[in-house]
Write a structure and sequence with these properties.
The chain has 15 helices and 17 strands. It has 470 residues and is α/β, with parallel strands linked by helices.
Length: 470
């Protein structure tokens, strides 16, 4: 999709100028500037390059001295479960299946106030840490719980971040051999109808869209084959993307062989779930033929290193995926399996954990590959690489200024190494669609303290309700 050129050429457009900063563009050539400038016009990047900004710019409403900072594209999160913000710190010594069994009875009691508070907390933590495009895979819709999708979309809109809601679903409960309680799932017909209604109500396909919707049945072990097949048909009829969990654990691999007579990737292909419009979360247990199938079809991967470690799922073969040409982005995953809730720490964790791979070791990933996973790779996975994910003229003005001259980074000479290998860098400025969301390491669009109080109150209320017999 080509970027419309009209806006940046208008005489009345306002401009923000950032100068004297190091810049990592993450473009196709990994262009970097030791000292350069970025000019934002409206919601687009108008120019970027070495040295000072061009002379004679009109309608400059803000000029920023970026000395001591690195400017990068905003981080793009490709997998999350916002509602889990209010169930952090539980089942901390469980593998995936046992963790799900332990927590589903609690999750099945959520309602609109709980989900609103959890979404606000999840979004705030990510945005404060440099995320400009967030994503939520929400798949728990208890009966009579209210309009949870609208609650999530509204929280993202109020925060001011770009957002993809993957409208999830489950129709395979305990009585059908699944893991969620019977009262936590939808019917096949109900899930499809509600998903289509969510697309119709909230999806915006425009170039500078702030809200997009994906079709996202939860996982092979929590949905029926018919929901997978009809979900794929629905997504393609509506022109939206598809998302689910895939190949996360050895238990899932065994489940698929026992139930379907094939592994997860072959099962996904049999249901129409491989393609350039699909991305999967985790993909830890992928063999050579699985990776080849993803590369052949252009299927994307959301790599969630901290969650994979928290649940002892294993180490995804990210270097092999990248070598094969598989699109790979980073994901926080739900905060009940990654309590930090931050994506910028996943840059470091992705690099370090992949170096534990016995085949690749220190050659697995480097700092610039890690930054690319968290920016352009995420944009690819969400189908928005023409609009976000790199700093290039004509793209949307989603960018982050990281402070790297303080205690945590001042002795690391290379700026990209500083933010990937070093401690989490403070965010001096984050722009989304050309508008400030973070200033001096604080959110300016919402009240962080109020969000913390609300989330704490709703977490306590959920705990009380979950303790009562159903």
């Amino acid at each position: 999709m080509a970027a419309p050129a009209a806006q940046a050429s208008r005489d009345d457009v306002t401009r923000i100028v950032i100068e004297n900063c190091a810049i990592a563009t993450v473009d196709a050539h990994d262009t970097e500037y030791a000292s350069g400038h970025v000019v934002v016009a409206g919601n687009r990047i108008e120019s970027i390059g070495a040295g000072a900004a061009p002379e004679g710019l009109e309608n400059v409403v803000r000029r920023i001295d970026g000395t001591g900072h690195l400017v990068t594209p905003g981080l793009v999160n490709t997998h999350h479960h916002f509602y889990q913000w209010i169930t952090r710190g539980l089942a901390t010594d469980h593998n995936l299946f046992n963790w799900l069994v332990a927590l589903y009875p609690t999750w099945a009691r959520i309602d609109v106030p709980m989900v609103t508070a959890a979404a606000q907390g999840s979004l705030a933590m990510m945005a404060r840490g440099g995320v400009t495009t967030a994503m939520d895979h929400h798949y728990v819709f208890p009966k009579n719980s209210g309009d949870l999708s609208t609650a999530i979309v509204t929280a993202a809109r109020d925060m001011g971040v770009r957002f993809t809601l993957a409208r999830g679903s489950m129709d395979r409960s305990e009585k059908d051999g699944g893991l969620p309680p019977d009262f936590a799932v939808e019917t096949l017909e109900g899930a499809l109808a509600a998903t289509e209604a969510t697309v119709d109500q909230h999806h915006d396909a425009s170039f500078d869209s702030m809200t997009q919707i994906a079709v996202a049945p939860c996982s092979p072990f929590s949905v029926s084959t018919e929901l997978m097949k009809q979900g794929a048909e629905l997504a393609r009829r509506k022109g939206v993307r598809l998302h689910t969990h895939g190949s996360e654990t050895v238990e899932e691999e065994k489940f698929c062989h026992e139930l379907f007579g094939m592994g997860p990737t072959d099962y996904f292909e049999s249901t129409g779930w491989l393609g350039t419009d699909v991305w999967m979360a985790h993909c830890v247990h992928m063999n050579d033929s699985d990776i080849a199938a993803f590369a052949r079809t252009g299927t994307g991967v959301a790599h969630c290193p901290s969650s994979n470690a928290r649940l002892a799922a294993g180490i995804a073969r990210v270097p092999d995926m990248l070598k094969a040409g598989v699109p790979v982005g980073l994901g926080v995953d739900g905060t009940a399996s990654n309590e930090s809730g931050e994506l910028h720490t996943e840059l470091r964790n992705a690099l370090l954990i992949n170096r534990l791979n016995t085949e690749h070791r220190e050659r697995a990933l480097n700092a610039r590959q890690a930054l690319r996973l968290g920016t352009f790779g995420g944009a690819q996975v969400l189908g928005r690489a023409d609009q976000i994910g790199s700093l290039e003229a004509g793209k949307l003005a989603d960018l982050v200024m990281w402070r790297i001259d303080g205690l945590g980074h001042s002795t690391i000479a290379d700026p990209v190494t500083a933010i990937v290998f070093g401690a989490a860098a403070p965010v001096t400025l984050s722009l989304v669609n050309g508008k400030p969301v973070v200033e001096d390491n604080h959110l300016i669009t919402v009240d962080e303290d109020a969000i913390a109080r609300s989330a704490r109150d709703e977490a306590r209320r959920l705990a009380r309700i979950a303790a009562q017999p159903r």
